Amino acid sequence: LRNLIDDFTEKVKTATEDIKVILLEKHAAIQRECDGFALEYAKEKDVAQKKSIAQCEKSSHDGGRAACIELNTELMGIESSLVEFAHDAISTLDVRIEAVGNESRGIATEHFRNVEQLENNFFDGVTQLAANLLERLATEDGEDDDFLSDECRAILNDRDALNNAINGSHDIHIGKLLAQEDLMREQNVAKIHDIIKTTKDGEWARNRKRVAEIINMKEKHLAEILALRDELNRNDDDFY
Protein backbone atom coordinates (compact mmCIF):
# COMPACT_ATOMS: atom_id res chain seq x y z
CA LEU A 1 0.00 0.00 0.00
CA ARG A 2 2.84 2.37 0.86
CA ASN A 3 4.33 1.84 -2.61
CA LEU A 4 0.99 2.69 -4.22
CA ILE A 5 0.68 5.84 -2.13
CA ASP A 6 4.25 6.97 -2.81
CA ASP A 7 3.90 6.36 -6.55
CA PHE A 8 0.59 8.23 -6.70
CA THR A 9 1.90 11.14 -4.63
CA GLU A 10 5.06 11.51 -6.72
CA LYS A 11 3.17 11.49 -10.02
CA VAL A 12 0.63 14.05 -8.80
CA LYS A 13 3.42 16.26 -7.46
CA THR A 14 5.26 16.16 -10.79
CA ALA A 15 2.10 16.94 -12.76
CA THR A 16 1.26 19.82 -10.41
CA GLU A 17 4.73 21.36 -10.66
CA ASP A 18 4.58 21.17 -14.45
CA ILE A 19 1.23 22.94 -14.70
CA LYS A 20 2.34 25.62 -12.24
CA VAL A 21 5.13 26.60 -14.63
CA ILE A 22 2.76 26.67 -17.61
CA LEU A 23 0.07 28.68 -15.82
CA LEU A 24 2.64 31.18 -14.56
CA GLU A 25 3.67 31.70 -18.18
CA LYS A 26 0.02 32.34 -19.10
CA HIS A 27 -0.29 34.78 -16.21
CA ALA A 28 2.78 36.62 -17.52
CA ALA A 29 1.20 36.70 -21.00
CA ILE A 30 -1.92 38.38 -19.59
CA GLN A 31 0.24 40.89 -17.74
CA ARG A 32 2.14 41.71 -20.93
CA GLU A 33 -1.14 42.37 -22.73
CA CYS A 34 -2.25 44.67 -19.91
CA ASP A 35 1.08 46.50 -19.89
CA GLY A 36 0.92 46.94 -23.67
CA PHE A 37 -2.58 48.38 -23.42
CA ALA A 38 -1.56 50.73 -20.59
CA LEU A 39 1.39 52.01 -22.63
CA GLU A 40 -0.69 52.72 -25.76
CA TYR A 41 -3.47 54.24 -23.66
CA ALA A 42 -1.02 56.56 -21.90
CA LYS A 43 0.45 57.64 -25.25
CA GLU A 44 -2.98 58.42 -26.66
CA LYS A 45 -3.94 60.42 -23.57
CA ASP A 46 -0.72 62.39 -23.86
CA VAL A 47 -1.48 63.18 -27.51
CA ALA A 48 -5.01 64.28 -26.58
CA GLN A 49 -3.67 66.49 -23.80
CA LYS A 50 -1.20 68.20 -26.12
CA LYS A 51 -3.92 68.80 -28.71
CA SER A 52 -6.18 70.28 -26.03
CA ILE A 53 -3.44 72.60 -24.79
CA ALA A 54 -2.72 73.72 -28.35
CA GLN A 55 -6.40 74.50 -28.92
CA CYS A 56 -6.61 76.47 -25.66
CA GLU A 57 -3.52 78.51 -26.57
CA LYS A 58 -4.91 79.17 -30.04
CA SER A 59 -8.27 80.24 -28.61
CA SER A 60 -6.69 82.55 -26.02
CA HIS A 61 -5.95 85.10 -28.75
CA ASP A 62 -9.67 85.55 -29.36
CA GLY A 63 -11.75 85.93 -26.25
CA GLY A 64 -15.12 86.25 -27.97
CA ARG A 65 -18.19 84.10 -27.41
CA ALA A 66 -17.86 82.39 -30.78
CA ALA A 67 -14.26 81.45 -30.03
CA CYS A 68 -15.29 80.04 -26.65
CA ILE A 69 -17.97 77.86 -28.21
CA GLU A 70 -15.59 76.76 -30.95
CA LEU A 71 -12.97 75.81 -28.35
CA ASN A 72 -15.56 73.76 -26.47
CA THR A 73 -16.44 71.93 -29.69
CA GLU A 74 -12.79 71.23 -30.46
CA LEU A 75 -12.07 69.93 -26.94
CA MET A 76 -15.15 67.72 -27.01
CA GLY A 77 -14.01 66.37 -30.37
CA ILE A 78 -10.58 65.52 -28.98
CA GLU A 79 -12.21 63.80 -26.01
CA SER A 80 -14.55 61.84 -28.29
CA SER A 81 -11.58 60.59 -30.29
CA LEU A 82 -9.86 59.46 -27.11
CA VAL A 83 -13.01 57.68 -25.93
CA GLU A 84 -13.27 55.89 -29.27
CA PHE A 85 -9.63 54.83 -29.06
CA ALA A 86 -10.10 53.58 -25.50
CA HIS A 87 -13.21 51.60 -26.48
CA ASP A 88 -11.41 49.86 -29.34
CA ALA A 89 -8.26 49.27 -27.28
CA ILE A 90 -10.21 47.79 -24.36
CA SER A 91 -12.17 45.54 -26.73
CA THR A 92 -8.90 44.31 -28.21
CA LEU A 93 -7.46 43.75 -24.74
CA ASP A 94 -10.58 41.80 -23.78
CA VAL A 95 -10.27 39.50 -26.80
CA ARG A 96 -6.56 38.90 -26.25
CA ILE A 97 -6.61 38.13 -22.54
CA GLU A 98 -9.77 36.04 -22.93
CA ALA A 99 -7.89 33.96 -25.51
CA VAL A 100 -5.07 33.44 -23.00
CA GLY A 101 -7.66 32.64 -20.34
CA ASN A 102 -9.25 30.01 -22.57
CA GLU A 103 -5.84 28.44 -23.13
CA SER A 104 -5.21 28.42 -19.38
CA ARG A 105 -8.55 26.80 -18.64
CA GLY A 106 -7.98 24.19 -21.34
CA ILE A 107 -4.56 23.33 -19.92
CA ALA A 108 -6.01 23.17 -16.40
CA THR A 109 -8.82 20.87 -17.56
CA GLU A 110 -6.29 18.52 -19.15
CA HIS A 111 -4.25 18.57 -15.94
CA PHE A 112 -7.22 17.66 -13.77
CA ARG A 113 -8.18 14.84 -16.13
CA ASN A 114 -4.64 13.48 -15.81
CA VAL A 115 -4.79 13.68 -12.02
CA GLU A 116 -8.23 12.09 -12.08
CA GLN A 117 -6.79 9.20 -14.09
CA LEU A 118 -3.96 8.86 -11.57
CA GLU A 119 -6.55 8.72 -8.80
CA ASN A 120 -8.50 6.05 -10.70
CA ASN A 121 -5.31 4.05 -11.20
CA PHE A 122 -4.54 4.37 -7.49
CA PHE A 123 -8.08 3.25 -6.65
CA ASP A 124 -7.73 0.24 -8.96
CA GLY A 125 -4.39 -0.60 -7.36
CA VAL A 126 -5.77 -0.44 -3.83
CA THR A 127 -8.83 -2.47 -4.85
CA GLN A 128 -6.60 -5.13 -6.40
CA LEU A 129 -4.34 -5.14 -3.34
CA ALA A 130 -7.33 -5.68 -1.07
CA ALA A 131 -8.54 -8.54 -3.29
CA ASN A 132 -5.10 -10.16 -3.21
CA LEU A 133 -4.92 -9.89 0.57
CA LEU A 134 -8.42 -11.30 0.96
CA GLU A 135 -7.45 -14.20 -1.28
CA ARG A 136 -4.31 -14.75 0.76
CA LEU A 137 -6.27 -14.68 3.99
CA ALA A 138 -8.76 -17.21 2.60
CA THR A 139 -6.09 -19.86 2.00
CA GLU A 140 -5.56 -22.71 4.44
CA ASP A 141 -2.41 -21.08 5.79
CA GLY A 142 -3.94 -17.61 5.90
CA GLU A 143 -4.42 -17.52 9.63
CA ASP A 144 -0.75 -18.37 10.19
CA ASP A 145 0.62 -16.04 7.49
CA ASP A 146 3.23 -13.80 9.15
CA PHE A 147 2.84 -11.29 6.29
CA LEU A 148 -0.61 -10.33 7.59
CA SER A 149 -0.59 -8.39 10.86
CA ASP A 150 -3.41 -8.67 13.38
CA GLU A 151 -4.60 -5.19 12.38
CA CYS A 152 -4.60 -6.19 8.71
CA ARG A 153 -6.59 -9.35 9.49
CA ALA A 154 -9.15 -7.33 11.44
CA ILE A 155 -9.65 -5.00 8.49
CA LEU A 156 -9.86 -7.83 5.97
CA ASN A 157 -12.34 -9.79 8.06
CA ASP A 158 -14.89 -6.96 7.66
CA ARG A 159 -15.07 -7.02 3.89
CA ASP A 160 -18.03 -4.65 3.61
CA ALA A 161 -16.35 -2.02 5.78
CA LEU A 162 -13.15 -2.43 3.77
CA ASN A 163 -14.89 -1.93 0.43
CA ASN A 164 -16.87 1.03 1.79
CA ALA A 165 -13.66 2.63 3.06
CA ILE A 166 -11.88 2.19 -0.29
CA ASN A 167 -14.84 3.44 -2.33
CA GLY A 168 -15.57 6.28 0.08
CA SER A 169 -11.97 7.49 0.02
CA HIS A 170 -11.96 7.41 -3.79
CA ASP A 171 -15.21 9.36 -3.99
CA ILE A 172 -13.89 12.00 -1.57
CA HIS A 173 -10.67 12.42 -3.55
CA ILE A 174 -12.55 12.78 -6.84
CA GLY A 175 -14.97 15.25 -5.24
CA LYS A 176 -12.12 17.41 -3.95
CA LEU A 177 -10.39 17.26 -7.32
CA LEU A 178 -13.50 18.40 -9.19
CA ALA A 179 -14.09 21.16 -6.64
CA GLN A 180 -10.53 22.42 -7.15
CA GLU A 181 -11.06 22.36 -10.91
CA ASP A 182 -14.27 24.38 -10.63
CA LEU A 183 -12.59 26.87 -8.28
CA MET A 184 -9.62 27.39 -10.59
CA ARG A 185 -11.91 27.90 -13.58
CA GLU A 186 -14.08 30.38 -11.67
CA GLN A 187 -11.04 32.31 -10.45
CA ASN A 188 -9.62 32.52 -13.96
CA VAL A 189 -12.88 33.82 -15.43
CA ALA A 190 -13.34 36.26 -12.53
CA LYS A 191 -9.80 37.60 -12.86
CA ILE A 192 -10.20 38.40 -16.55
CA HIS A 193 -13.63 39.92 -15.94
CA ASP A 194 -12.18 42.06 -13.15
CA ILE A 195 -9.33 43.32 -15.35
CA ILE A 196 -11.72 44.46 -18.08
CA LYS A 197 -14.27 45.88 -15.63
CA THR A 198 -11.60 47.85 -13.75
CA THR A 199 -10.21 49.18 -17.04
CA LYS A 200 -13.65 50.19 -18.33
CA ASP A 201 -14.59 51.80 -15.01
CA GLY A 202 -11.34 53.76 -14.99
CA GLU A 203 -11.91 55.04 -18.52
CA TRP A 204 -15.54 55.91 -17.75
CA ALA A 205 -14.48 57.90 -14.66
CA ARG A 206 -11.74 59.70 -16.62
CA ASN A 207 -14.16 60.60 -19.40
CA ARG A 208 -16.78 61.90 -16.97
CA LYS A 209 -14.19 64.05 -15.24
CA ARG A 210 -12.80 65.41 -18.50
CA VAL A 211 -16.24 66.24 -19.95
CA ALA A 212 -17.12 68.05 -16.72
CA GLU A 213 -13.86 70.03 -16.97
CA ILE A 214 -14.62 71.06 -20.55
CA ILE A 215 -18.19 72.10 -19.69
CA ASN A 216 -17.04 74.02 -16.63
CA MET A 217 -14.36 75.74 -18.69
CA LYS A 218 -16.94 76.82 -21.26
CA GLU A 219 -19.36 78.09 -18.61
CA LYS A 220 -16.57 79.95 -16.83
CA HIS A 221 -15.36 81.63 -20.02
CA LEU A 222 -18.88 82.58 -21.09
CA ALA A 223 -19.54 84.01 -17.63
CA GLU A 224 -16.32 86.03 -17.83
CA ILE A 225 -17.27 87.31 -21.29
CA LEU A 226 -20.74 88.28 -20.05
CA ALA A 227 -19.28 89.99 -16.99
CA LEU A 228 -16.81 91.91 -19.14
CA ARG A 229 -19.59 92.95 -21.51
CA ASP A 230 -21.72 94.17 -18.59
CA GLU A 231 -18.78 96.11 -17.22
CA LEU A 232 -18.19 97.77 -20.59
CA ASN A 233 -21.87 98.66 -20.85
CA ARG A 234 -21.79 100.26 -17.40
CA ASN A 235 -18.74 102.26 -18.35
CA ASP A 236 -20.53 103.48 -21.47
CA ASP A 237 -23.55 104.51 -19.39
CA ASP A 238 -21.33 106.36 -16.94
CA PHE A 239 -19.57 108.12 -19.81
CA TYR A 240 -22.84 109.46 -21.22
Please tell me about this protein's structure.
- The protein has helices at 2-59, 65-137, 150-157, 159-239.
- With 240 residues, the protein is mainly alpha-helical.
- Helix 1 (2-59) packs antiparallel against helix 2 and helix 2 (65-137) packs antiparallel against helix 4.
- The radius of gyration is 36 Å and the shape is rod-shaped.
- The chain starts with a helix and ends with a helix.
What is the topology?
Blueprint: H1 2-59, H2 65-137, H3 150-157, H4 159-239
Helix pairs in contact: 1-2, 2-4
* Content-based structural category: mainly alpha
Secondary structure: number of strands: 0
Task: Kindly state the percentage of residues in helix.
Answer: over 70%
- For this structure, the quaternary state is single chain
| Number of separate helices | 4
Radius of gyration, in Å, reads 36 Å
Largest sheet: none
Provide the β-strand percentage band: under 5%
Shape: rod-shaped
Tally of discrete structural domains: 1
| Uncertain regions spanning at least 5 consecutive residues | none
Termini gap: 114 Å
Order of helices and strands: HHHH
Mean pLDDT: 86
